[in-house]
Every structure is written in C-alpha cells, then in structure tokens.
Design brief:
Arc Repressor Mutant, subunit A; two-stranded antiparallel ribbon; 8 helices; 70% helix; globular
C-alpha cells in the first residue's frame, strides 16, 4: 500500500514532463552526471535505444535537453540538460520530496531518514537474491501491479461475465 501510494504520488509529481518517470530519470542523469553519449545514457538507465531516441526527441522539443556532438567522438551525441531543464529538475525534485513526505507522514524527519535507510538496505539485500535486469523493468512491473481504470474495468467485466 505504501509503495502504491508513493508511485501514484511520484507519477503525479512528474506527469507534465515528457516521458513521465523515465523522462525524469533522463533529465536527472543529463543534469547530474557525465554519463556520456546517448547510447551510454540508455545503457546506464536500462532504457531501450529506440525508446531512448523518442524520449530524447520529446525532451529536446520541450527545450529541456540538448544533444551535442561529443568532442571525443564526433559521431556520438552527448545529452546535456538546458538551463530550463535544470530549473525544472529542481522543481520536480521538490515535488517528489513533497510526495514522499505526504506518503510517509506522520513520522518525523529522523524516523523518515531511518525508514529510507532501512528500505535501501533491504532493497540491496533483495536485489542480491533476485536481481532486476534494469530499473525500467522494475518500473514496468510496478506499474503493471497498479490498478488503473482500464484494469479495474476489465476485472469487473470478467467478474460479471
């Protein structure tokens, strides 16, 4: 229930961003890291190259990222956040913190920090036992578990039929 509430709140926090949560991952990586080429970014985030191309097209059309020639390899393109993209990322980070706070209330800040730390430790142990191929696979699996109007309607129809 906690996970479902967080995923719902997090999706709402980044809903206006092209690509939603995946768009957020790309924008964050383009802003905060030096992953390198478009291909390296796709591999780093576990996003299919074709999906990455469409996602980058949408983020670029929105003025949030740029593809620049890589000085080390002119055939490759580096993905870099624009000033507008970096500013939006700051706003999205605040929205995600607010979503997390709403989901994890009423514990105080110290209890939330302890909870987050314990979740990271648990996730690390679980991933060692049952590794996830890519972060996107995990997101896809989690989204498939969330009830939607379509799946709820399909379940109701099956029950009636």
């Amino acid at each position: 229930m906690v996970f479902r509430a967080y995923v719902t709140a997090a999706h709402a926090a980044v809903a206006e961003l092209p690509g939603g949560p995946r768009g957020y991952q790309v924008l964050a990586a383009a802003t905060r890291s030096d992953v390198g080429s478009q291909l390296a970014l796709a591999q780093h985030l576990g996003i299919d190259r074709t999906v990455m191309t469409y996602l980058l097209d949408d983020l670029e059309a929105a003025g949030l990222i740029e593809r620049r020639p890589d000085p080390a390899d002119r055939r490759a393109r580096r993905v870099v956040a624009t000033e507008r993209g970096a500013t939006l990322l700051t706003q999205l980070d605040q929205r995600l913190r607010t979503a997390e706070t709403l989901v994890l209330e009423p514990p105080d800040a110290g209890e939330r920090d302890t909870f987050r730390r314990q979740l990271r430790q648990l996730a690390t142990r679980i991933n060692a036992l049952d590794p996830v191929d890519t972060p996107c696979d995990l997101v896809d699996h989690a989204e498939a578990e969330l009830p939607t109007a379509r799946t709820s309607l399909a379940r109701a129809t099956r029950r009636q039929g």
